[in-house]
Amino acid sequence: MDIYLPIAGLSVNIVVIILLGGAVGMLSGMFGVGGGFLTTPLLIFYGIPPTVAAASASTQVTGASVSGVFAHMRRGGVDFHMGAVLVVGGLLGTLFGALLFELLEAWGQADTVINILYTLLLGGIGGLMAKDAWRSLSASRSGKPMPASKRRHHPLVASLPGRWRFYRSGLYISPLAPLILGFLTGILTMLLGVGGGFIMVPAMLYILGMSANVVVGTSLFQILFVTMSSTMVHSLTTRAVDIVLAIFLLIGSVTGAQIGARLAQRMRPDYLRFLLAAIVLIVALRMALGLGWRPDEIYTVQFL
Amino acid sequence: MIVRLLLILAFLLPLPALAQSAGEPKLVPDVSQRKINIQSRFTGAELLMFGAIIYPRGVAPEGQIDVAVVLRGPTRPIILREKQKVAGIWVNADSIDFRSAPAYYAIASSRPIEKIVDARTAAIYELGLKRLQLSPTGEIQTREVRRFTDGLVELNRKDGLFAEAPGEVDITDQVLYRARLTLPSSVPEGRYIAETLLIRDGRVIMADDSVAVEISKTGFERFVTIMAQEYGLLYGAFAVLISLFLGWFAGYVFGRL
Hints:
The complex is a heterodimer of chains A (304) and B (257).
Chain A: E1 2-5, E2 10-13, H1 14-31, H2 36-46, H3 50-74, H4 80-107, H5 110-141, H6 155-158, E3 164-166, E4 171-173, H7 176-192, H8 197-208, H9 212-236, H10 243-266, H11 269-292, E5 299-303
Antiparallel strand pairs in A: 1-2, 3-4
Chain B: H1 2-12, H2 14-19, E1 26-31, E2 35-38, E3 45-54, E4 66-72, E5 75-86, E6 89-102, E7 105-109, H3 113-116, H4 119-124, H5 142-158, E8 162-166, E9 170-172, E10 176-183, E11 190-200, E12 203-217, H6 219-230, H7 232-256
Parallel strand pairs in B: 2-12, 7-8
Antiparallel strand pairs in B: 1-3, 3-10, 4-7, 4-11, 5-6, 9-10, 11-12
């Protein structure tokens, strides 16, 4: 079953797109990541123009995260106060990201910068998560309790001026910390078509030190608003959102997200984190190889 | 259907030829579709380019006749970038500006181009992927232009946007000819010019580029494109709403299960 994508300007197999959306949606439901870090490269690999892939992936992440947000809201897993600060930072970040994207395009290095960013971010975060998950796994295997970490949040966070109380997160920190975090992920959303959950979740845990039960819900809450904004910015600047592509991705991913959320409840969080770390590392490795190996296509065309 | 059409043409065509003064033969080219609509089920198209050769007094001359057909998409300015390995990673290092790169170019001929015309004629009529005139801007060495042109040809060839089909034009009784060209689903919209060349003894004796094929999105696809291009705010808002709705709807349905 083939369908023509009016903005991407080529025809694709619907089943492939729906399955791709479904697989990514499952991850999003399980881990609270948008899954854009998988959708965008996979779409590009399938032959969709990179800008269309990034723009449409952000539209898809909106849909995948909305049901997750509702699910987490019902069980009180969203810190709205923290979420609002993150969203404000994220909105500023998408605008700045759009500017950055235009500069990189004019310079001709957009795809290289994007690939390097992907490799470094995914590699660094994947490694961090794997190390941590491995430690807690082996600790629970050997029966010894984990050495309790004394530090709640990163010392840099504590040095920022002004403090707000975030009750659900169990934090008393400067609002500048989540604002900057939101801003940075907003830039990534615009550049990479990712929601930024794979950065947000570990950053919330390890840098802000939020309590684990609101991390996923609050991350999804922020992703929801930032991807909405990124879809709008793309619609107004690159005009690369392919609604047909987004709808078929969504049909897969909203279903997958529901299944993923259910699976997550039955799995042990340690294993879950370890699995996510493995997936992130595999994508990072693939990206790194792509940078070093001779690419299939040496030449790229940019229309004027 | 097409065969019958060709037969009818063959019967009808000698008549006007009688009125024509003796001398050069005439070409009557046509294509199977003058308008290609891109709709949701569009997966590319196959175009039959066919026609007849009318000889003065209706007599085919001695010697071999060759036919080449070219289908050329709209031209546009592009930047072509080339990746090179710099400090261990592949980055865009070199680039060239082409003022007129065709979005699509396919050529079919009754025999390989090199065998039917000399290099100069082939260059004049832009016959073959090696002889595309892309009008590079700025002062660039010929060797570099060659390298980039080959790069673009290779890239577009893989995507099916450039094609060369030697020996794919069938000529029947020195009068009727036909060739099949394929268009991938990624062909851009625009006016495509179908050119037919009649070649004998290494010379182009007749060339015709009066036939055009219009490729355009229609219906829903056209509507979506216009909305995205002209009404970005509305389009973006709609995209956001539909993704919110689908996400909420799935949550609602699964919540009841």
